[in-house]
Amino acid sequence: MHTVMVILGGLVLLALCLFAARLIGGAGPGPMLTALKVFLPLWLIGAAINLWVGVARAGYSVAEELPIFLVVFAGPAVVALLLWWKLSRG
Length: 90
Prior knowledge:
Blueprint: H1 2-25, H2 29-56, H3 62-89
Helix pairs in contact: 1-2, 1-3, 2-3
């Protein structure tokens, strides 16, 4: 359940980045692409913090947490990359 909540948190962060881009930059693909470029490193940091918490506080080994890290990062990152691809084409 925790993994699902973290992934949903990543999707919320993605939506907030896109919303901020729309407010600050206006309509069009340019600001949205910038928001996606900002989101990816932010989400990498967020997923890494989740990995650290799993290792340092929950007592899992890095080997146990690494697959979870990959799933947690990949979910929202794939959505962001698909949006990036779609916005770049149009």
